[in-house]
Design goal:
Layout lengths: L1 H27 L5 H6 L5 H11 L5 H13 L13 H36 L4 H15 L2 H15 L14 H35 L2 H8 L4 H12 L1 H17 L2 H6 L5 H10 L3 H29 L2 H5 L1
Helix pairs in contact: 1-14, 5-6, 5-8, 5-11, 6-8, 7-8, 8-10, 8-11, 11-14, 13-14
Length: 314
């Protein structure tokens, strides 16, 4: 297990280093001068030069990359030129919204998908299986932003069960959770549909294995064989999807955050791109990449916990 963990740590660190270089190269290599964009085309040359020096744009590319990388390693992400505040504080404030939103959406996705996947696999070919598959097809096909607007119209505007948008902060946890409920549902349903289909397929494949037939021959009921034996062995593809889903929910909620006016990472990076605030764009993208790579790392560890054979192969 130690060797397995060490190899995964090396891959994680190498992936982060390569990702940082690619992110910096792509963001800094975008055509156009951020200083000219911020000051306008009629800015005086000396004012433009002063802002370029303040932003570090007059320094060599490699030095700027090393300075940015060293700052991140020490916890200093720089200062936003739009908000005039440390980028680390901006990211921390927005993570307080995006991280709980992703967590709630993932919880709802699993809570819906597991019983639906078990039901569809246990009742394969029956009416209930067809109903679940039809529902998942609809969940995948319907855009989540359209579903989000439908939730706002019904549950917020018409019935007044939840707020239509905004985030009151965590000073009142109950109000904060109410504000995150509708966007979490809008994010969770498409992911639950995908997870249900993957779980159903994995369970059906597992139910055809010899050890399941042996368990059934010994008198174990289909439901017990499904929950005690088949479910655990069908978890590996499910864990892969869960890791990808959490990464998507954290990094890909830009549209949903704009629909509900949530001050999360998605809105922050969207605003930073439109304002050409490069240091914010680079730092937020790097945090999201770190989250994706870390989730994949934890998923690999979960694989090893579920299937010990993977530890022995590496």
């Amino acid at each position: 297990m130690r060797r397995y963990l060490f190899r995964r740590l090396i891959i994680l660190l190498a992936s982060l280093w390569v990702a940082s270089g690619v992110i910096f190269l792509l963001v800094e290599g975008v055509p156009g001068d951020p200083a000219s964009f911020m000051l306008g085309v009629n800015a005086a040359p000396d004012t433009l030069a002063a802002l370029r020096a303040q932003m570090g744009l007059d320094q060599p590319f490699v030095w700027r990359y090393l300075h940015w990388l060293g700052g991140m390693l020490s916890g200093d992400f720089g200062t936003s030129f739009t908000y005039k505040t440390p980028v680390a504080g901006l990211i921390a404030a927005r993570l307080a919204v995006s991280l709980p939103l992703a967590g709630i959406a993932l919880f709802l996705s699993v809570a819906l998908a597991v019983p639906m996947g078990l039901l569809a696999a246990a009742r394969r070919g029956k009416v209930s299986d067809g109903a679940v598959m039809a529902g998942t097809q609809l969940g995948i096909a319907v855009p989540n932003f359209w579903f989000a607007m439908l939730l706002v119209l019904l549950l917020a505007v018409r019935w007044h069960w939840f707020p239509a948008g905004g985030f009151p902060g965590w000073s009142d946890p109950l109000m904060a959770l109410r504000a995150l409920t509708l966007p979490a549902i809008a994010l969770a349903l498409p992911q639950a549909a995908i997870l249900t289909r993957v779980l159903r397929s994995a369970l059906i494949e597992t139910l055809g294995q010899d050890y399941i037939r042996t368990a059934r021959a010994k008198g174990l009921s289909r439901a017990r064989a499904l929950t005690r034996h088949a479910l655990r062995n069908a978890l590996i593809p499910v864990l892969t999807i869960l890791g990808l889903q959490f990464s998507f929910l954290l990094a890909g909620a830009i549209i949903i955050e704009n629909v509900f006016y949530l001050p999360g990472l998605g809105r922050l990076i969207f605003q930073a791109i439109t304002q050409r605030d490069l240091i914010v764009v680079e730092s937020v993208v790097m945090v999201l990449v770190f989250a994706v790579i870390m989730v994949n790392f934890l998923t690999d560890l979960a694989y090893a916990a579920v299937d010990p054979r993977l530890r022995r192969r590496t």
